[in-house]
Structures are given as structure tokens and as C-alpha cells.
Amino acid sequence: MRQDTELRLSCQGCRHFYVTHDPHRPWGCRNFGFKGKNLPAEIVYLSTGMQCAYYQRKPNFRPSTSKITQKKGRVDKTG
Fold first, then answer.
1. Which tens digits make up the pLDDT trace of 45-62?
2. Cα torsion angle, 55, 61, 63, 69, sign
3. Whole-prediction pTM value?
4. 49 DSSP 8-state letter
5. What is the pLDDT of residues 30-41, one digit of tens each?
């Protein structure tokens, strides 16, 4: 049995995760069928004490690796 050493409380990249248009319940999980204020992975962890067992990575998901860089030199104030 494989043990995950890192605790994952993020739904980023999961195929079941979606963003709602409800400002009071902004995140949802299609697999569990609920929406809430917190990320579904956090709700599952608080309820069961385990990580979400239904996490499935999106086939086209690539984590963000971009870094914010500052330009060297003068700042263009003209817009």
C-alpha cells in the first residue's frame, strides 16, 4: 500500500473541481456533488481525516511554474 508523505489540501488540477458563480459557495466537487466556502479537499479532510480519494488529475493540466520577474532598467512612465 502506497503512503503519500505530502498532505494535499488543494483541488487544483482535479477533473472533479469547479468554480461556481455563487459568491457564498465559490468552489464545488462534481464527484461528491457539493459546493462550499472552502476547497472540497479541505472539507473532505476535515470530515474524514484523510485526503480525498477521488482526486484525478486533468489530462491537460500543467502546474504553474511561471515566476514574477522584475524588469531591470528604467521604468516607462508613458503607459
1. 999 999 999 999 888 877
2. negative
3. 0.65
4. S
5. 999 999 999 999
